[in-house]
Design a protein that fits this description.
Shape: globular
Strand content: 5-15%
CATH superfamily of the domain at 99-254: Uracil-DNA glycosylase-like domain
Number of helices: 10
Distance between the termini: 53 Å
Radius of gyration: 20 Å
CATH architecture of the domain at 99-254: 3-Layer(aba) Sandwich
Helix content: 40-55%
CATH topology of the domain at 99-254: Uracil-DNA Glycosylase, subunit E
Number of strands: 7
Amino acid sequence: MTGQSTRDELRHQLLLRLRQVRAAGIDWLPQAPELEFATGSQAAPSEDASLAGALEIVDSPAEDGASLPEREQALTVLAAEVAKCTRCAELCSTRTQTVFADGRAGVELCFVGEAPGGDEDAQGLPFVGAAGQLLNKIIAASGFQRGDVYICNIIKCRPPGNRTPLASEAGNCREFLDRQLELVRPKYIVALGGCAASNLLNTTLSIGKLRGRFHDYKGIQVMVTYHPAFLLPHRSPEKKREVWDDMKWLLGKMGRAIPTKG
């Protein structure tokens, strides 16, 4: 193993350990004496170092070369950190539990929704209610199994009454979403609905203007379509055809065969 490989591996392990410590609720670490072999332009602080600062130093470069098992472990640590989050007072006081994701790192396709609903809050998994059952059908019609994709939401807690997430709530959860997607590394993202699209892409454009073309999220291609909840019988079931057209377009972009929809 080369010197650079050794340093990268140490960075990977340190990043995972720091996140485990932060997930345990520890915000500060004592500053140890600087090691003689340590190099770099950043001077060591004279007082105790904040864990946030340590993560900032170690974070992104390590994950770029992380192996799949390391990324899976980092997702587990991140989920534990999310479960302890109290950034949104109303959400953390009314939730049953956080809803992190369903899926694994390394998949090609990720679906990003808006927020957990009542069924999701009860079960701890995204898209398990009526909208989730419809999403499962969309996934299956596209030639995937649910386990072949990654599913998450913009925020990880159910808003009371299933209201639309506030901008402040989406902002508080943005760090978690970004880190989540960095670890999963999908090649394509489907943003489900206007709320998911506007928050993920930082845009004020309507879903009508966002559909029909690919967008960029940190080098990942994003397609915008309607949220499955919008397609339910009491809302706009006639839009199912448009969602299927969107999915066929995505499959063509991915180079996958387009199944014959029954």
